[in-house]
Amino acid sequence: MKRVLFVCIGNACRSQMAEGFARTYGGDVMIAASAGLSPAMSVARDTRSAMSEKGIDLRDHFPKAIRNLGRAQFDLVVNMSGSEILPDEVPGARIIEWDVEDPVYLNYEDHCKIRDRIETLVQKLVLDLRKADDQPRFRGQGSGHLEL
Fold first, then answer.
1. How far apart are CA 43 and CA 35, in angstroms?
2. Confidence band (pLDDT; 50, 70, 90) for 135?
3. How many CB atoms lie within 10 A of CB 88?
4. What's the number of CA atoms in the CB half-sphere (13 Å) around residue 37?
5. Which of 14, 134, 136, 18 lies closest to 76, judged by CA?
6. CA torsion, ordered 132, 137, 139, 145, to nearest 10 deg
7. Predicted pLDDT of residue 66
8. Residue 91 and residue 124: Cα distance in Å, rounded?
9. How many other CB atoms are found less than 10 A from the CB of residue 66?
10. Which of 46, 56, 129, 147 gives a 20 to 30 Å CA spacing to 140?
11. What is the pTM of this model?
12. May I ask the CATH class of domain 2-147?
């Protein structure tokens, strides 16, 4: 099980959507969390509504900073912030970049288009993680034992 952190600027739109989709679609291969570089006061109303249309309830979600995640260790960080520099709070994690526009000031229709793009990206990530989990791994050289 991989620990995955989705990061954007305010943790009010993109990373919250990604976390919601990841928990819904990929709970068998990842433990998802989200955070922002400069957290907003609340999850955007349009984000909550757009995700509700997909059957995902974000009512209990709230913006948080990476440092508020305590000592949590992550295997993968998905950076949607547009910033090339992430804080030092995620040491050792592999970082991938997703170029996703921030919908915070966009109209609802565009907000939903970005939601759908994030959904597709998360689905691909879930499939990639499942594929990686299906690959047999050898425990030791020449041991003949497979680690599944």
1. 11
2. low
3. 8
4. 16
5. 18
6. 140
7. 87
8. 24
9. 22
10. 129
11. 0.87
12. alpha beta
